[in-house]
Structures are given as structure tokens and as C-alpha cells.
Amino acid sequence: MAGVLLWVISPKENATALLSLIPRSSGKQKRCRLCPGALKFSTGVSAFSCAVANPARSSEEKVYEVVLKQAALVKQQRQNEALDLNTTAETATDGMTDWDLLNEAYDRCGEVCAEYAKTFYLGTLLMTPERRKAVWAIYVWCRRTDELVDGPNASHITPRALDRWEKRLDDLFQGRPYDMLDAALSDTVSKYPVDIQPFKDMIEGMRLDLRKSRYNNFDELYLYCYYVAGTVGLMSVPVMGIAPESKASTESVYNAALALGIANQLTNILRDVGEDGRRGRIYLPQDELAQAGLSDDDIFRGQVTEKWRNFMKGQIKRARMFFDEAEKGVAELNAASRWPVWASLLLYRQILDAIEENDYNNFTKRAYVGKAKKFASLPVAYGRALMGTSKLF
Hints:
single chain, 63% helix
């Protein structure tokens, strides 16, 4: 994703300049990890980092600990009638005197969302004003985080810079925002049952990008996909809300959310094989490449062979399985939140179709969904959003 470097590598004298850090460049989007609509996770288990802990456990087991913790927070909110949004809003903003400044921060978050995620932005306009602003704030933080390692100044980012960015995250969760855009997120997390762990895990995904350019197997790749995309679901579901009439368990909704994040990131990876290869990065399971009779050299060579087509068919099939799992949970969201999530799911899923239409040439052809197909998908997404909760759980 194109944008500007956020000065996490600089001391606090840059605070004033940080107020104008909304990305303005119109450069090519790179592996947008902000797949709005990723949603998943479940009950209260203490989880520090789903990447650390017992290495004998699978990545899915590590991630599920975070799912449980976040879902427990949402369960508590749903069970406690006293924690309605109006009461929370009054409590959380106690002592905040400059409402104009806070509203301006949210408005600027909305501008960023409108510029870089147009379809999703339109969908957010159907949400209540409170939910809409909160989703914008989360989007902007995720985008800024992603820009640290994927932006034009990514070569200057060091592990220490990410450590400083994480310290800023800690501060804003404690009500000490560093700049205007941080203030919007700080206000959001004070109103909704959002846990800090998914945010920290996303930063861990950025650290992986600094030190890792190969993934031995899908277990490793799954964890990476959780870090950079699945986390967005954990951040977003508490804001988007689960429909009051939903009979689904909180855990199942979060599981579907996580599946959407994984599906979107796998789709990004399959779309960007050639682009990533030119940067010396291969986000494909090394063991599966070997089983298909392929190697890194085949990717760098960029020739579409029968071996490559067969390999890609398997990768696309797996991504679609995650999309199928994700669909089960979208209908359980709050009615006003379903459309942007359905739109994201349907549009991203069509990228896989485009790869097939390109005869699996993701080396020199970029798969994309044309404007006509995008517009055609919107009423379909809206129709599904109106269908209400499912009986699948």
C-alpha cells in the first residue's frame, strides 16, 4: 500500500507534523492487509503472543487463544445491559473537553478510508455514526502500521522503529494518544470491548516482514496471515456488533471473521506472486512447492507451466475454502454492518476468478476486478446483507 512513513522512528518533537500524516499519494496498493470484514475468535484464555508460547502447538491453536480472549470480552458486553454504547461513551470521554478536535480526528480517518478503500467506505455509511467512526479509526491505524513495512520508506524501518510504534499503541490504549489519529483510536477502544492483543499481533506481522521472506509450510504461513489480516477481524467485530437476534455463538462468529481475514490474505498472496518475487519474497509454502516439483527459481523465472497451473489450482481451492467458512458468520453481524463485509468478501473472492481467467499467470499479469463487476457485486452484497441471520450454527 502506498502512503507516507509515519515517524515512529523519530522522537516526540515530530508530534505536530504527525497531525498531517494522512496518506495522499495515489500509488499502487500493495497487499492490502486491511481486509475489512475478517471476523473470528472465542472465550477467556490469557494469551500473550500467539506466536510465542509452546512451539509444539499448531499455529491455529496459538491463534485460537487470542480468539477466545476477544470473544470473552464481547460476550461480557452482550450479557451486561449496563454496557450500552451511550453509557460507555459518556464514561470513556469523561474529561475530554475538545469535542471539535476529536470529531476532526474521526473525519480525517474517514477521508483516508474513502480514498483507499472506496467500496468499504460506502458500506460504512450505512452503519450508525458511532460504529462508522470507530471502524474508520481502526482502518487508519492498520493502514499506518502496514505502511511501515510496505510504504515508500519501508527500507528505513528497523525493529526498533516497530518497538516504538508498539509503545505508542500501549500509550493510546492507556488514554495517552500521540497524535490526532491516535486519539480517534484511543477513543474507540475506550468505548468498545477491543483487546490490545490483535493490534500487537499485527505489529508482530510487520516484524516478520523485516526478517522473513520464506515460509516452510502452511502452518507458518497461516500464522503470518493471521498476524497481518486475521487480526483485523478481532479488532472489528466488537465495533460492528453481533445481531441481537443471532443464535450463533460468539466464538463461531469470530471464527468466521478469522477465516475471512485468512482468505483475503491468501488471495493477496496469490495475486502478487510475481510482484513479491521481484522483491525477493515468496509467500508460498516451500514444502508444497517442492511436492509440486517447483522451486524458488521457477517463481523467479515466471513461466506458467502445467506444474504451476496444478499448484495454483490447489492454492486457490484452499483460499476458497476459507471464504466458504467466512460466509457462515457474516449474516450474524449487526444488520447495519453486514453490507461492507459482504462487499469485501464477494469482491476479494472474484480476484481468484481473475487469476484463473489469466490462465494462472500471476507473474506478469495482475488479477483484478473491473469496475463493472465491482458495481454489479454491490447490489448482490446488499441483498445478502438484508437476508438476516442464518440458522447454520
